[in-house]
Specification:
4 domains, mainly beta, 75 strands, 1084 residues, Methylamine Dehydrogenase, Chain H, globular, six-stranded mixed β-sheet, 6 helices
Length: 1084
């Protein structure tokens, strides 16, 4: 049976799909950071407009700058895969841009793609043009004379054999493809270059390589160097005998033509002896010119060479460092000091007309030089961090922790009580190397545990920066510990001093890492054929620990049962112990439907039921890209799959079950985030401002109900306040569809004082600022059915014109950030049906009444912790063009409410629902409730005076406008009565302006309004006093009370003066107006 939910759920009898278009107010915040950036794999520039730059990242999508690298925007977030292997701009028609997905640097953490895409509008929109099964595209070349002719260099997936590798060509803009160069299922394109003087001549390195979970092999008999001179119709494989390239098995190559002299060609060739070769006849004959260490060091990961387009002897080899030759490759020198720009380089753009302008892409982002490498500018606003793990603490505000590929471990705030966004400098390093798991010490978050590759774990002090190595060791010299690239680490939920660490064994420390005990046997297969990492690499050994195997990846203690621990390995084993490690049971044989030997990425023990756990398993490292998510309820005796490949796109990486609502679950895959509100019966992709990025880890900050997301390519996202999803999971569609309104309990918020942002006061556009959480208000949320406009199009029932317009709020976003995505949640028009929101204290007293336009689905309204204003408060009309979500900035509220618990009632039509809301004072300080009461009471008095002043100002403003109408109407008229009235009007206007200047109505409520006289108007004095008192949470001082008394006296004096003036002048003026044959002062 199919039931359609009017609010947001299309529900099948077996589950519930979520319509996230009805949850537009619920968007995650991109908080960065961007100071470490991430791997940039491909760069292209519009040569005729060099300020337009495209940058492809390994797993963070495609970015574009139209300002020479100052500001950037992601332009590929809504496509199916965010791993970019190649980007190419048609220089003949720069609106044509091609992207090949799946990076071409086959390290252990490589991510895959899904075909090639084309844009015809400079990246605004994209179309998938096929070749989905190539998985990884390393090069794209567009014919310089014909943009419809494009060559695709598919390196293919390193994880398995497949035929979709080699060179593809289209001559019709991608509508059809020809597979013009293919060797075998093991061999793909390592590099591909086109002769700049002859687009039919192309050199291609076909590279045989294979990555397995435990080993990498570069090179083989299928590798080679191929040339075509007829656009790919015919190819010649070059040889040592005929062409001078090395004999024997070959590997990866880096190729480059010299633009100014296309007969000069360079080739870095991986072979038994790696060397740089040069050709001076266009690539037909080669000569080895350099076999030193200065040409490169890790061919499998980077082996690229570039030639200065104006000088065939100036050559750049980019690898760990950037080396330059001025003598045609015979010698090289490093041109970038190691600590200046990040190492591990993958892409270099050199402008064809200005070779001093270069852009470098590496594992730490991008850098730009305008003087040929003498000085470099790091691009610090590309949030491309590749996080392996994510964690949080319980500080206020809480901090996020995580480790990144090639960029160490970091910590920083999830939000700040400062102005502006979350700046890069708010995050800082706590560990080096390739960073992995980080855990804050639950006793004191100043301290914690940070991990890097091969089991290197330290206990850090983030205040001083000191660090103690606490890596477990073996007491038996015959037993060598095996640590994964990304080792298992866990905090015991029952004892803050107990932590666990994984090698092939489970290590336990009861003193925060000072000493360790092994509490398990070897929990892996201990397959010695998969323990040859010191020989990994193929032609060039590359033993960095990335291929370490038969190791533990997961240790998961149960939070319900002391002594119950789960362990998962990289070779498919899952074990469980119920007695703290005395005995272990291998339960992996019960994983029906999961290939033996698969990678156990995570295990999550249930917070609800003993013996229950969910295992996140993937097998893509053996060319199986299906998602595996298995659940047990009996300590692993039986397992049930709770996802299948038709539910989600991409293999499974992370999982978490909400600790409050068991039906609410989150699943991270290689290509995005999925949410279930029916306990995994159905999954829906979350796309509200969240890209299709590798979602590596998930954690819920329980105090604040936030989902914190660690991505592998786009740093960190925070989805504030998941309570709306909890309501959907708990109540289901019935509670929504049968009620016009459903209130959602609010998370506790805080009345705080905010500081100015640290760092530059006006930072410009080149710095990154993550999206900050909205502060200074509580957020009230409710679900509503699709609104029906009342007869006549007026306001909805329950809302009146005098009530303050609340500020619709998107999630808890609002503090925008440079380089982040989005900002404050969108609001709807003020017109149409309205919801009335009433806030009550626990005694039932009405504190505040707000109104808000209604949107179908989730609605959010801000309460600024204030009471209702005095009844005679004049609410100004909104200036033209101000959207409803900013209405509260122009509406006058009352005195501040006192901290504590409240209830709120949302009324739509004749239906209402109630929720809970609480706010407290700034937890960083202590407050005296008596001072807060004194502050509130005095502000109540100030608000009464402010309302009276506003009423006075409103009257005189209105009447002055009437006089202006008279003056305008008299233009062009003649006669004694007209002249007399004109003179009288000018006199009246002058006298009224003097009164207006004193009361403060000059300029009214316009932006930047104010009096143009030297008199400080009373309204400004009163508002200044209000700000002064509000700026502190202490009791008001004697000066504040004296000012209020003085201003009250001044108001009475002004009121008397105005009353006297009106009595003496206004009626007489109106009478004079009536002597003329019109009356522009309607009704007076």
């Amino acid at each position: 049976m199919l039931v359609i939910c009017a609010l947001l759920i299309s529900t099948l009898s077996f589950g519930q799909k979520i319509d996230f278009s009805k949850l537009e107010a619920m968007k995650p915040r991109s908080i960065g950071p961007a100071n470490m950036s991430g791997r940039v794999t491909s760069i292209d520039v519009v040569n005729s407009s060099p300020e337009i730059i495209y940058a492809g990242s390994a797993s963070g999508g495609l970015w574009k700058s139209e300002s020479g690298g100052i500001a950037w925007e992601p332009i590929f977030d809504n496509e199916l895969a965010l791993s970019i292997g190649a980007v190419a701009v048609s220089q003949k028609n720069p609106n044509i841009v091609w992207v090949g997905t799946g990076e071409g640097n086959p390290r252990n953490s490589l991510t895959g793609g899904y075909g090639v895409y084309r844009s015809l509008d400079a990246g605004k929109t994209w179309k998938l043009m096929g070749l989905e099964k190539t998985r990884n595209v390393h090069r794209i070349i567009i014919d310089p004379n014909d943009p419809n002719t494009v060559y695709i260099g598919a390196i293919g997936s390193p994880w398995g054999d497949h035929k979709e590798r080699g060179v593809y060509k289209t001559t019709d803009g991608g509508e059809t493809w020809n597979h013009i160069l293919y060797v075998d299922e093991k061999t793909g394109v390592g590099d591909m270059v086109m002769d700049p003087s002859n687009p039919n001549k192309i050199l291609v390195n076909m590279w045989q390589h294979r990555r397995e979970p435990w080993f990498f092999t570069s090179g083989g008999p299928s590798s080679g160097l191929y040339m075509t001179v007829d656009g790919g119709k015919n190819w010649t494989k070059q040889s040592a005998k005929d062409n001078g390239i090395p004999e024997g098995d070959l590997g990866r190559m880096g190729l480059a033509f010299a633009t100014n002299n296309p007969n000069r060609v360079y080739a870095l060739i991986e072979a038994k002896e790696n060397a740089l070769y040069r050709s001076d006849d266009g690539g037909f004959k080669w000569e080895m010119i350099n076999n030193g260490n200065d040409i490169g060091n890790r061919p499998f990961y980077y082996f690229d060479i570039y030639v200065d387009p104006k000088n065939e002897n100036r050559v750049y080899s980019i690898f760990t460092n950037v080396h330059r030759s001025e003598d045609g490759g015979k010698s090289f020198q490093n041109i970038i000091p190691r600590n200046l720009i990040h190492v591990d380089n993958h892409a270099l753009y050199i402008h064809p007309d200005d070779p001093k302008y270069m852009i470098l892409g590496n594992d730490g982002g991008m850098a730009i030089t305008r003087d040929m490498g003498k000085k470099w500018q790091f691009v610090e606003n590309l949030p491309l961090g590749q996080f392996y793990h994510i964690n949080v603490d319980n500080e206020m505000p809480y901090n996020v922790y995580g480790g990144l590929q090639d960029n160490g471990t970091y910590t920083g705030p999830a939000y700040t009580w400062k102005s502006d966004g979350i700046r890069n400098d708010y995050f800082f390093t706590i560990g080096g190397g390739d960073g992995f798991d980080v855990m804050a010490d639950p006793d004191d978050s100043r301290y914690g545990y940070s991990q890097s590759q091969q089991g290197n774990v330290s206990r850090y002090d983030k205040l001083t920066g000191s660090s103690k190595r606490i890596k477990p060791t073996s007491d038996d010299p015959k037993v060598k510990l095996r640590f994964n690239w990304n080792s298992a680490m866990a905090q015991d939920p029952f004892d803050n001093s107990t932590i666990y660490f994984g090698s092939q064994f489970v290590h336990k420390s009861t003193n925060k890492g000072d000493s360790w005990t092994i509490i398990s046997p070897d929990l892996t297969t201990n397959d010695t054929t998969k323990q040859n990492q010191d020989k990994s690499g193929g032609l060039t050994i590359d033993a960095t620990g990335a291929e370490n195997h038969t190791t533990l990846l997961v240790i998961e203690p149960s939070a319900l049962e002391k002594g119950v621990l789960w362990a998962g390995s990289d070779d498919g084993y899952i074990h469980v112990t119920k007695d703290g490690g005395a005995t272990w049971t291998n339960v992996s044989k019960n994983l029906k439907g999961v290939p033996e030997g698969s990678w156990v990425n995570q295990i999550k023990a249930s917070r609800y039921n003993k013996g229950e756990a969910v295992a996140v398993i993937n097998n893509y490292r053996r060319f199986d890209f299906k998602p595996y998510l298995m659940r047990t309820k009996d300590y692993g005796k039986t397992w049930t799959s709770i996802v299948n490949e038709n539910d989600v796109f991409g293999y499974a990486l992370s999982f978490i079950q909400d600790p409050v609502e068991p039906k609410l679950m989150f699943l991270g895959t290689e290509h995005g985030l999925y949410i279930s509100i029916d306990e995994a019966k159905t999954w829906t992709k979350f796309e509200n401002g969240y890209p299709s990025v590798s979602t590596m880890d998930l954690v819920i900050q329980e105090r604040e109900s936030d989902l914190v997301i660690g991505t592998f390519g786009r740093a960190i996202y925070v989805l504030d306040d998941i309570n709306p999803l909890r309501v959907l999971a708990a109540k289901g569609q019935k509670a929504i569809t049968e009620s016009d309104v459903t209130a959602i309990d609010a998370v506790t918020s805080y009345m705080v004082s905010t500081r100015a942002a640290s760092g530059p006061a006006n930072p410009g556009n080149a710095t990154f600022e993550g999206e900050n959480r909205q502060s200074g208000s509580a957020i009230i949320k409710f679900f509503a059915k699709k609104p029906e406009a009342p007869a006549g199009g007026g306001r909805g029932a329950g809302a009146t014109a005098s009530q303050a317009q609340g500020r619709p709020a998107g999630g808890q976003g609002g503090g925008g950030g440079r380089g982040g995505r989005g900002g404050a949640g969108g609001g709807s028009s003020q017109r149409g049906p309205q919801a009335k929101i009433e806030i009550f204290d626990l005694s039932g007293n009405l504190v505040r009444t707000l109104s808000s336009p209604i949107s179908e689905g989730l609605n959010s309204v801000s309460w600024r912790y204030d009471e209702d204003p005095p009844e005679n408060t004049v609410q100004p009309e909104l200036p033209a063009g101000v959207p409803a979500q900013f209405a509260s900035f122009f509406r006058r509220g009352g005195a501040p409410a006192l901290p504590g618990k409240y209830t709120f009632k949302v009324t739509i039509g004749n239906q209402s629902d109630e929720g809970k809301i609480e706010f407290q004072m700034d937890p960083r300080d202590t407050y005296d409730i008596n001072n807060l009461i004194a502050r509130r009471d005095l502000l109540r008095e100030v608000n009464v005076l402010s309302a009276d002043v506003s009423a006075l100002a409103s009257k005189i403003t209105t009447d002055m406008a009437s006089v202006d109408k008279v003056i305008e109407a008299l233009k062009g008229k003649r006669g004694p009565e007209v002249n007399a009235l004109r003179t009288k009007s000018e006199e009246v206007k002058k006298e009224m302006k003097e009164l207006s200047d004193a009361v403060g109505s000059g300029g009214g409520f316009r932006f930047g309004g104010g009096s143009d006289s030297d008199i400080v108007p009373l309204s400004s004095k009163v508002s200044g006093l209000s700000r002064t008192i509000s700026g502190s949470f202490d009791a008001p001082g004697a000066a504040d009370r004296k000012d209020l008394a003085d201003f009250n006296s001044e108001f009475k004096s002004l009121q008397s003066k105005m009353d006297a003036w009106y009595a003496a002048n206004w009626n007489a003026y109106l009478a004079a107006v009536k002597t003329v044959d019109f009356s522009p002062i309607g009704g007076e």
